[in-house]
Amino acid sequence: MNAITPITTTLKDWETDQEVRWCPGCGDYAILKAVQRTLPELGADPANTVFVSGIGCSSRFPYYVESYGFHTIHGRAPAFATGIKLANPQLDVWLVTGDGDGMSIGGNHTMHVLRRNLDCQILLFNNEIYGLTKGQYSPTSRQGTTSPTTPLGSVDRPASPCAFALGAGARFIARGFDVSKELPNVLKAAYQHKGAAFVEIFQNCIVYNKDVFNDFAAPKGAEDRQLWLANGEPMLFAKGTQGIALDTEKLTLKVVDVVDGDWQSAGVIVHDVTNRSIAHMLVEMPFGPFPMALGVLYDDPRPTFEAAVMAERAKASAGKEPNLAKLLAKGQTWTVEDSGPEL
Predict the structure, then answer these.
(1) Which residue in 48, 112, 101 sits closest to 79, CA to CA?
(2) pLDDT, tens digit, for every residue of 12-25?
(3) Is the C or the N end of the chain the one with fewer CB within 10 Å?
(4) Is the CB of residue 58 less than 8 Å from the CB of residue 101?
(5) pLDDT tens digits, residue range 207-245?
(6) How far apart are CA 15 and CA 63, in angstroms?
(7) Helix-strand-coil split of the chain, %, nearest 5
(8) Model confidence over 124-173: pLDDT tens digits?
């Protein structure tokens, strides 16, 4: 496959003439701007870019990005994205979904696009609620969430999108949140990964689940509860006064204090994005006792699905003449002779 030449664009080149219609204050606005600002920095080409979505508030996304786009059916965006990428592997494919669309009706489709390792960016907007259909609880809603379908509070244990993605065999896992200034860097890392890049984006639903992420994502005062991961850097948070270390007896993570910046003596882990075992621990760290792990948690590429399919097609067709008539006549075929009129 030929490399794509980056082109020069601006934010305006990625904005459409469509009125952006989400609830005032919705986190989707911030995510949209983050994507539109990031695409020019990637050298992406609108004529070579496709946004694919399913059903939900997040799935309006293709209307608002000046590129090719498909607004598909509930939970099936990964199937469409797979067909698009196989038809033209040169396309930049972005898949936009939500916690209901991608983790409930589309859970199996999400699993398969991840294990196959299709080269695409998967942005899962997680607001822990069904917003478009008026506030029912979703697979990621917390226990005790009250909604029209759980008036006494949800008793379900919530699903973890990143843990699900790791379990499905994803080779890139990252997290961000809607109003974070670091979100564009997460998007860039996902784009640079060749394969299925899964990004969970915590997104505030201003109407049905307002400020549910404020403990770590509030515009002010929550920075001490965010662990922004960087490959090769120590896992420090709270302005460097605390860090994450490995409890060697229990083989679990623990929070340690860092005195005078001496994180080595405190045993703070240096982040290695290829360490799958630590990635599992990071995505399952309970928020409260621990900070929220954000940024690139895991990044360990392997050959992509479409590359394998293209290689298989090339091998199967090598040295063969593209002759449809001969193909149809090959194998178990016969000719019925006219034996005259029936008696």
Answers:
(1) 112
(2) 999 999 999 999 99
(3) C
(4) yes
(5) 999 999 999 999 888 889 999 999 999 999 999 999 999
(6) 9
(7) 35, 20, 45
(8) 999 999 999 999 999 999 999 999 999 999 999 999 999 999 999 999 99
* Gap between the Cα atoms of 277 and 296, Å rounded: 14
Cα gap 53→340, rounded to integer Å: 59
pTM of this structure: 0.92
Q: CB within 8 A of 159, min separation 6: which ones?
A: 99, 103, 139, 140
Which residues make Cβ contacts (< 8 Å) with residue 156, sequence separation at least 6? 137, 139, 141, 143
Q: Where are the domains of the chain?
A: 11-232+273-307, 234-270
Q: Which two tokens stand for residue 207?
A: 């109407």
Query: Residue 77: enclosing H or E segment and its boundaries?
Result: helix 77-87
5/134 Cα distance (integer angstroms): 44
Q: Give residue 239's region: left, alpha or beta (phi > 0; psi -120 to 50).
A: left
- Report DSSP state, residue 103: I
Q: How many Cβ atoms sit within 10 Å of the Cβ of residue 112?
A: 16
Strands (E), 118-241: 120-126, 172-177, 196-202, 226-229, 236-237
Report d(CA 64, CA 113) in Å as an integer: 24
CATH topology of domain 11-232+273-307: Rossmann fold (3.40.50)
